[in-house]
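Quick board copy: two proteins, each given as sequence then tokens.
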Amino acid sequence: MSASIIKITDTTLRDGHQSLLATRMKITDMLPIAEKIDKVGFHSLEVWGGATFDACLRFLDEDPWERLRALKQAFRQTRLQMLLRGQNLVGYKHYPDDVVREFVKAAVLNGIDIIRIFDALNDVRNMEVSMDEAKRQGAHVQASIVYTISPVHAIDNFVDMARTLAALGADSLCIKDMAGLLTPTAAYEFVSRLKKAVDLPIQVHSHYTSGMASMAYLKAIEAGADIIDTAFSPLAMGTSQPPTETLVTVLRGTPYDTGLDLALLAEIAAHFRVVLQHYEMKTVIGVDTNVLFYQIPGGMVSNLVAQLSESNALDKLPAVLEEVPRVRAELGYPPLVTPTSQIVGTQAVVNVILGERYKMIPKEVKAYVRGLYGRPPAAIDEAVVRKIIGDEAVITVRPADLLEPGLERAAKEAAPYLQKDEDVLTYALFPTVAEKFLRERLSGKYKVDFGLVEEAAAQGGKVYYPA
């Protein structure tokens, strides 16, 4: 395999703080360092999507659309990238096609250049509409293959999926290893197979949870990977990505040399080291080998801990960790990524706390078994199907085919609070949270003074914290 310069997507402003800070980093801690980041020469910056949209509204008192516009204004040279959950967009359920198309259109209009699209079940039907609209809007469409391991998952299947995504118009492909399960050997084989099967750039995204990600990246690069995802060291490792500075150093002087300036990277890392002093780490910052035994991403472990703590049952965590793989197998081995990780994890917690398996069934689990999230990788255990939905029919069509258009209704319901076109989309995605946010915004409560932030940046990048 001939060597070539490796490109880097930095995830600090999205997945880095989503993984380690529960998506709590404020825009005011991003903008003062934006000019320096923009000079680095990254392939792209992942800055939006995933949980950031919800977190802005729910916890940070920020309008996610204003955040995106501010970032676009700050980053004038580097392409901005987002993570999109296919038909789930940035939420936790399927949305109607009209909402999906309008959201993608608005994301591109407001500054997104590259859209990484995935489906939690690797059900390509749930990716088609968002891929098509992103293509229509002139964005770079990066279609993702969610990597996991199970008796029904094999590289052959992933390669077949890659061919399908290429035929649908993907501009590049991403191996999305959300749990850090990709071994160096598997990374080499997977990338090698993809490079032979499709004529597209291959990007590798992994989490450091198991401690293997940096090694997997190196073998993926040797196999022909074009781009890797990293985060600045203060927001790297643990359940985040490998550190940017380390990978740049490792590749320096090799045929894969990124050409990035280590001194500049160090200056930027220093900024985030200061920023971290104002936040509490929310998840694992070391290596969590539980993921190797239970295939549970680190972020999912923290969610399980939170659920058990609310029920004063933290002592049952070991039992829940053992129950998750059982539930996952019975539900057809879904990859454990949003929202299927929540579906499987919640059912496992309920099973353990009640002391009887499937005595109580959350509504999301019922919807999943009915096929409303898509086609599971394997057949769901028949006895479990009967226990969960009885004789109810399981749908076989694309789930969104059953949904009525949603934009007009959202516009009517949110009419008293609307100030701009994107507010309709915000409401369509998260009606309850959005109504509270939009109502309070009308009173002038939510407003970040970006002028002060820009002034701080001009004075050397001093971090500005609003009162």
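And the next:
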Amino acid sequence: MPAVFQAASLSPVPRTYRAALADPNWRVAMEAEYSALLANNTWDLLPRPSHANVVTGKWVFKHKFKADGSLERYKARWVLRGFTQRPGIDFAETFSPVVKPATVRTVLSLALSRSWPIHQLDVNNAFLQGTLLETVYCV
């Protein structure tokens, strides 16, 4: 029940970026995301070519919780609406390397049987670490 009691005191997930900017918790989360985008040199500010397809973006907001149900942080992400991209112009191929659950179980079983230490790693803003070959114009 403690998590239910705490959930009532959380700032609600905003429906618009204007509502998020009005709440200090969500505003801090948005500023952190924006700072990460700037620090990673995610984009260059350019004039929009007349022929360019412009991919629109939006803010996505979410509460992140710890295993015990308590609030870990407010999470805000700026995402592009990929469905507005055009094949061969904005992208050629998509690929996301994902580990299969069976592989994870196998590695954990090996580590346990050989007494290997296990550590967990979380890469903040991992998607910013890749390099695009295409030029994508966004708003």
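Board note added afterward: The chain has four helices and four strands.
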